[in-house]
């Protein structure tokens, strides 16, 4: 029969790949850059804007802090990139910050990092997609009312592309990322060149003034410091996703560590250049943007005015207006790369979840690879949670940004502290002078990174906690507790199932008592009886419940008429309840003979359509679910294939729902 579901799956995901083809999905540096670095590269589209949004709370007077805040962000990014290059070389297995913290600071610290990163990956998808939708609306304001729907559609498209595999998603995302880099660099270069030639670009909002927010007017002293720190913490969104390369080292071609370190250096250089260019150009063009358009003075109607993003204003001022080719090019490239920046999370989240599942901190299904050798369950889980977040916050970047970057700086701090301990351990055993010098340099870099990111983490907590960051903290805590609980469950289960005395475990039961459940006398019943007799139990009987006395009497008559040798026992049920009557009878046998095993045979229909399951097997399903909780009872299903099942497509070995594991099968050469 034609299977529409299977056809759609193949159209969306593609043909299934063999485990041996995993090596063919490894990435060259030019493809790895847009896959793992699209988030930090694209964040320059909103990092400058977030700085300006905070500073303009106090009015135009505080915009002169912008270059100093930008310089601090650049210095921080440089330190973090250098620090993570050490991680890539020291821990190339792909665990990244989680592996560093777990190995050097203990399992609890590792779980703090893991929980923080998982939350941050979800926020990366939500913020990137919402920001991309914002840039589309900046070009086409009429789409504003469809913001949430657009965001959810983009998440669904990203999910579909990533389910096709890492290499496929890399090919799809490489061109937009490079087009965005080229567009921003050309825009910044053109704008700054015009400034040097005396024809500085002017933003569309340069003529508007800004009324200070009443709560932040006339700031001084500690209040002014807090405003600047808030702007700095918002600008630190430029660092999100920097650690993704350290998590994705196994996806690189050999030599993996060197290629990953080179890609990270390239990412850092490009991101810093674009961030500096956009920030400088925003200052030159006098971009004015606020959290509320009605605080812009000089607008004829602030209620209906849709503020354009900083990138949109810069493109319009540099390339000659909002109808120029350059404006639409930059807006299209920015919107596309911001949406595709979520791909960093779509690669990082499933990889980290797979490692955590392998370590038994998350459900084992997250370690399984799908048809295209991607961690499909992790991809789907990320998409669902991010989609719910976008729906709940109406895809609003300003609301979502407060939940952002907290997790990433937690992982930065703990991983760099772990690297310091790592180098201390290496130095304790290393004697070669040249190697010791390299270790000392690396330790100094990581120590600087740990101190710096710890300070930034404190700033982020102090400035964003009451504005919504508390929710991200709560989510990370809940996730940490949940992962500890999952690990405890797996450990308890392993201990409970461990073989302690093989001889005792292999000792056969005293007797096997067989019971065949009967509702009516038909072919499935006779097959179940024949199957049960083939087991040769010590005692065998058929069992029915007399819900209808006339039907039970008719069954007894047919039983005797056919001369069936298996005795039929009829249980009385005055309240017409089947399950309880069977359970009470089986448990009574167990009480009388605790060392005996009761084997219950249940005839079941095998149907070809999902809706037929609603019409059959409900009593059998409920009985099985209850009997399975009874010690010493074995439940055996005896299938009877209805004619409709003969026309159903039988699942192939690699069809949907097939059980897989995360590790590929490796061929061994003789």
Number of E strands: 7
Strand order of the largest sheet: 5-4-3-6-7
How many separate helices? 24
Structural class: alpha/beta
Q: Overall mean pLDDT score?
A: 81
Largest sheet: 5 strands, parallel
Ordered list of secondary-structure elements with their pairings:
Layout: H1 4-13, H2 29-42, H3 44-55, H4 66-90, H5 96-105, H6 107-139, H7 147-163, H8 166-196, E1 209-210, H9 222-235, H10 244-247, H11 256-285, E2 296-297, H12 310-319, H13 325-358, H14 376-392, H15 397-401, H16 406-429, H17 433-464, H18 469-497, H19 502-506, E3 512-517, H20 523-534, E4 539-546, H21 549-562, E5 568-572, H22 579-592, E6 597-606, H23 610-613, H24 618-627, E7 633-641
Parallel strand pairs: 3-4, 3-6, 4-5, 6-7
Antiparallel strand pairs: 1-2
Helix pairs in contact: 2-8, 2-11, 2-13, 3-9, 3-11, 4-9, 4-11, 4-16, 4-17, 5-6, 5-16, 6-7, 6-13, 6-14, 6-16, 6-18, 7-13, 7-14, 8-11, 8-12, 8-13, 9-17, 11-12, 12-13, 13-14, 16-17
Describe the overall structure:
This protein has 24 helices and 7 strands. The chain has 670 residues and is an alpha/beta fold. Helix 5 packs antiparallel against helix 6. It starts with a helix and ends in a 29-residue tail after the last strand. It has a 5-stranded parallel β-sheet, with helices on both faces. It has a two-stranded antiparallel ribbon with strand order 1-2. It is elongated, with a radius of gyration of 32 Å. Mean pLDDT is 81; it is low at 18-23, 650-659 and 664-670. Strand 4 (539-546), helix 21 (549-562) and strand 5 (568-572) form a beta-alpha-beta unit. The chain has helices spanning 4-13, 29-42, 44-55, 66-90, 96-105, 107-139, 147-163, 166-196, 222-235, 244-247, 256-285, 310-319, 325-358, 376-392, 397-401, 406-429, 433-464, 469-497, 502-506, 523-534, 549-562, 579-592, 610-613, 618-627; strands at 209-210, 296-297, 512-517, 539-546, 568-572, 597-606, 633-641.
């Amino acid at each position: 029969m034609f299977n529409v579901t299977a056809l759609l799956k193949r159209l969306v995901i593609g043909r299934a790949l063999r485990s041996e083809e995993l090596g063919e999905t490894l990435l060259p540096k030019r493809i790895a850059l847009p896959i793992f670095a699209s988030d930090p590269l694209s964040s320059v589209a909103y990092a400058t804007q977030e700085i300006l949004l905070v500073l303009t709370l106090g009015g135009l007077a505080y915009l002169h802090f912008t270059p100093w805040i930008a310089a601090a962000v650049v210095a921080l990014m440089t330190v973090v990139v250098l620090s993570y290059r050490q991680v890539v070389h020291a821990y190339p297995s792909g665990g990244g910050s989680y592996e560093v913290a777990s190995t050097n600071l203990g399992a609890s610290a590792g779980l703090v990092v893991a929980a923080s990163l998982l939350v941050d990956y979800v926020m990366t998808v939500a913020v990137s997609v919402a920001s991309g939708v914002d840039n589309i609306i900046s070009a086409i304001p009429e789409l504003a009312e469809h913001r949430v729907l657009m965001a959810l559609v983009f998440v669904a498209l990203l999910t579909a592309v990533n389910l096709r595999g890492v290499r496929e998603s890399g090919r799809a995302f490489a061109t937009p990322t490079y087009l965005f880099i080229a567009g921003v660099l050309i825009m910044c270069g053109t704008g700054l060149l015009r400034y040097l030639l005396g024809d500085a670009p002017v933003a569309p909002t340069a003529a508007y003034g800004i009324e200070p927010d009443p709560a932040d007017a006339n700031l001084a002293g500690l209040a002014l410091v807090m405003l600047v720190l808030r702007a700095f913490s918002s600008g630190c969104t430029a660092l999100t996703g920097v650690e993704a390369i350290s998590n994705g080292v196994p996806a690189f071609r050999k030599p993996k560590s060197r290629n990953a370190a080179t890609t990270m250096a390239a990412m850092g250089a490009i991101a810093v250049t674009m961030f500096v260019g956009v920030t400088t150009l925003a200052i030159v063009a006098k971009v004015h943007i606020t959290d509320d358009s009605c605080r812009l003075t000089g607008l004829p109607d602030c209620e209906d005015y849709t503020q354009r993003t900083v990138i949109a204003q810069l493109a319009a001022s540099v390339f000659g207006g909002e109808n120029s080719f350059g404006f639409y090019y930059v807006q299209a490239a920015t919107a596309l790369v911001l949406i595709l920046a979520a791909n960093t999370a779509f690669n990082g989240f499933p990889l980290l979840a797979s490692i955590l599942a392998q370590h038994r901190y998350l459900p084992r299904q997250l370690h399984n690879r799908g048809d295209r050798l991607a961690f499909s369950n992790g991809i789907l889980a990320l998409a669902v949670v991010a989609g719910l977040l976008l729906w709940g916050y109406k895809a609003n970047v300003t609301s979502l940004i407060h939940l952002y970057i907290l997790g990433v700086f937690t992982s930065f701090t703990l991983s760099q502290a772990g690297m310091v301990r790592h180098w201390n351990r290496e130095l304790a055993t290393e004697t070669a002078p040249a190697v010791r010098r390299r270790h000392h340099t690396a330790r100094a870099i990581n120590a600087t990174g740990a101190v710096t990111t710890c300070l930034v983490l404190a700033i982020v907590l102090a400035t964003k906690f009451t504005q919504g960051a508390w929710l991200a903290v709560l989510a990370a805590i809940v996730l940490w507790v949940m992962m500890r609980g999952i690990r405890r469950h797996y450990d308890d289960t392993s201990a409970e199932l461990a073989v302690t005395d093989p001889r005792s475990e292999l000792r056969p039961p005293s007797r096997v008592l067989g019971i065949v459940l009967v509702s009516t006398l038909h072919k499935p019943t006779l097959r179940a009886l024949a199957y049960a007799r083939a087991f040769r139990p010590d005692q065998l009987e058929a069992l029915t419940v007399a819900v209808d006395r006339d039907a039970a009497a008719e069954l007894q008559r047919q039983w005797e008429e056919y001369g069936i040798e298996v005795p039929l026992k009829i249980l009385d049920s005055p309240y017409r309840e089947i399950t309880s009557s069977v359970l009470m009878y089986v448990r009574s046998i167990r009480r009388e003979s605790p060392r005996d095993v009761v084997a219950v045979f249940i005839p079941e229909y095998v149907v070809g359509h999902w809706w037929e399951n609603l019409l059959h097997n409900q009593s059998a399903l409920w009985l099985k679910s209850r009997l399975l909780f009874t010690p010493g009872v074995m439940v055996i299903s005896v299938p009877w294939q209805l004619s409709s099942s003969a026309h159903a497509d039988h699942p192939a070995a690699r069809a949907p729902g097939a059980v897989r594991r995360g590790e590929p099968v490796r061929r061994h050469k003789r």
